[in-house]
Design a protein that fits this description.
heterodimer; A: mainly alpha; 2 domains; 4 helices; flat; B: mainly alpha; 13 helices; globular; disordered N terminus
Chain lengths: 119, 256
């Protein structure tokens, strides 16, 4: 089932290889600039207590918003995703390592997905 | 509350060891990225892109939201300006994540090293790096990035290879990996620190509320994440600063 490279310029996209390459490169360039500029510009330690707190809390706020509610649809079905979430929360509460937590969540979701198909 | 500047010493190991610790710490990212990279490749090929396009995107971008946006905008007939706009908006949170991690980097790290470290500033890599209680070295970042990059690109390349040995159930289950990893990063910190707990709960509640708004007034998902995440962190930081100031005036008050 190798994709056929000969019909590369398909009607669905309707672009030449050059146009696609331009799209790919502009996306990569923008993403890199967003990542590099803060590291290059903010080279000092922040001293203001509010800003210290804010910079420390920001990733937790953003990560939490990325988790909820999307985690409940992460593994195709809501039941399997919820099983994965509770497995992750339980493993994380026991201070398991990141890899173990990820494995526990994937295993729980996998079992639910297989069971839902009637075994 | 601990400040980021509390961790102002390097881990006492060689660069080679740091790189290996990075590789090992990124293993859960590897598995998660394998699944996302695969899903991305499938979508791009289904959309009608030649197989080299998603592979080149994964090799040059290493950003889920950015790459999916590039595919969707191009499919909708958008050109380079539209792609730049969409990717900027969707990936604005990288600026905030990178600002946060900048405080865990030695201020004397030269610009060229910072430019290399920035290659791997994804949500997942920064989240894992946050768990380290020492300064982040370039070697550690390189290890994290190399392992994650391998998973991401392997996933995309598997699409080209056919990948019939991966069952849909397995792909679906692997979709949990990154979220589970986020949960594992947040929970211990939220239990140890009330400001983090407050921020996490507020952000989750705010994002869920924004998502159930009627379609007509609801901002795009990337905006609801930015709005709820930033608002929650601001509220947490304000509360934290206020409490610390009060407890300095009255030392018997418990610190947050």
């Amino acid at each position: 089932m190798l994709p056929d490279v000969t019909d590369a310029v398909s009607p669905a996209v309707g672009l030449t290889h050059l146009q696609i390459a331009a799209a790919v490169i502009s996306g990569a360039a923008v993403t890199y600039v967003l990542r590099a500029v803060p590291l290059l510009c903010l080279r000092k330690r922040v001293e203001n207590p509010f800003l210290i707190s804010l910079l420390r809390l920001l990733p937790y706020g953003l990560l939490s918003a990325m988790i909820f509610p999307d985690i409940f649809s992460a593994a195709d079905s809501t039941a399997a995703s919820s099983a994965g979430f509770f497995a992750a929360a339980a493993a994380a509460s026991l201070n398991a390592k990141l890899t173990c937590v990820a494995l526990a969540a994937c295993a729980a979701a996998y079992i639910f997905l297989v069971l839902a198909q009637g075994g | 509350m601990k400040t980021t500047s509390a961790a102002n010493t390097y881990a006492d190991v060689t660069d080679h060891r740091e790189f290996c610790i990075g590789l090992r710490d990124a293993l859960p990212i590897f598995w998660g990225y394998l699944s996302v990279g695969f899903a991305f490749g499938m979508l791009a090929v289904k959309t009608g892109f030649p197989i080299w396009a998603p592979i080149l995107m994964s090799m040059t971008q290493l950003s889920g939201t950015g790459q999916f946006a590039t595919v969707h905008v191009t499919e909708a007939g958008g050109g380079v300006p539209e792609i730049i706009l969409a990717v900027t908006v969707l990936n604005l949170r990288y600026v905030l994540m990178a600002l946060s991690i900048s405080q865990k980097i030695d201020p004397s790290m030269p610009a060229w090293k910072r430019m290399i470290a920035a290659l791997g500033d994804t949500d997942e890599i920064i989240a894992v790096a946050l768990k380290r209680n020492t300064l982040i070295t370039l070697s550690y970042m390189a290890g994290l990035t190399a392992c994650s990059y391998a998973g991401w690109n392997l996933g995309t390349i598997l699409v080209a290879a056919g990948a019939s040995f991966l069952s849909p159930n397995l792909i679906g289950a692997l979709g949990m990996a990154l979220y589970a990893m986020f949960v594992a990063i947040i929970i211990p910190e939220a239990r140890a620190n009330r400001a983090v707990l407050f921020t996490v709960c507020t952000a989750a509640a705010a994002n869920i509320v924004l998502r159930i708004l009627p379609h007509a007034v609801r901002p795009a998902d990337s905006w609801t994440i930015l709005i709820s995440g930033v608002a929650a962190a601001c509220a947490g930081a304000a509360l934290n600063t206020f409490q610390n100031r009060r407890s300095r005036r009255n030392p018997t008050c418990s610190r947050m």
